[in-house]
Amino acid sequence: MNYHFVFKLLIISLLNSVTFAITCNDVTTNLKEKYNLEDGIICGEAKNEPISLEIYNNGQELTEIPSYIFSITSLKELTIVNHKIESIPSQIKKLKNLETL
Question: What's the rounded Cα separation, in Å, for the pair 98 and 101?
Answer without folding.
Answer: 7
